[in-house]
Amino acid sequence: MERNKSMKKKMDHNRKSLWQNLTIEVTSFNHNNKNGLIGYATARINQLDLEIRNIAVYRKNGKTTISPPANPPCKENGNSWFPVMVFYDMRDFNIFQKKVVESLECYFEEHDLNPMTLESGMILL
User: Fold this and answer.
1) Residue 68 near residue 41 (C-beta atoms within 8 A)
2) How many structural domains are present in the chain?
3) pLDDT per position in the chain (125 positions), as tens?
4) Range of the domain at 49
5) 7 within domain boundaries
6) Burial 61-88 (b: 16+ CB within 10 A, else e)
């Protein structure tokens, strides 16, 4: 039992180390205000030379959240969105989300975009 705790602690440390060393940069944002959705972002993980497109960005009550890319609903998957990428561990998704949201805030600031205005739908890009 003690060994399992030790291994879990080491895995958690390795997870944090992995994410701390990754830089996530939002490279584009397309405004689309609908049901809390404010648009879609493209993010780049520089160390992996990986670009993730169509990250849904939501803003409600002053809080920004994201959803990984997903395919639109179809009859085969029960009329629900089908994820294109999945995090096996929610802790990884939470860290990823935090880093993307931080990068989005920088992107909005650099491009003179006000997230509150985007949320209300009063701006066209």
Assistant:
1) no
2) 1
3) 555 566 566 666 677 777 888 999 999 999 988 888 999 999 999 999 999 999 999 998 889 999 999 988 877 767 678 889 999 889 889 999 999 999 999 999 999 888 777 766 554 43
4) 24-120
5) no
6) eeebebebebeeeeeeeeeeeeeeeeee
Asked if residue 17 is part of any domain, the answer here is no
Domain of 102, CATH number, reads 3.30.1120
Q: Which value, in Å, is the radius of gyration of the alpha carbons in the chain?
A: 17
Question: How many Å apart are CA 54 and CA 100, to the nearest integer?
Answer: 13
3-state helix, strand, coil in the chain (%, to 5): 40, 30, 25
Query: Do the beta carbons of residue 42 and residue 30 sit within 8 Å?
Result: no
Dist. CA 67–CA 108, nearest whole Å? 18
Q: Angle 2-20/90-110 helices, nearest 10 degrees?
A: 20
Beta 50-60 vs 24-34: how paired, if at all?
A: unpaired
In-domain check, residue 89: yes
Q: Which residues pair with 59 in a beta bridge?
A: 64
Residue 116 located in a structural domain: yes
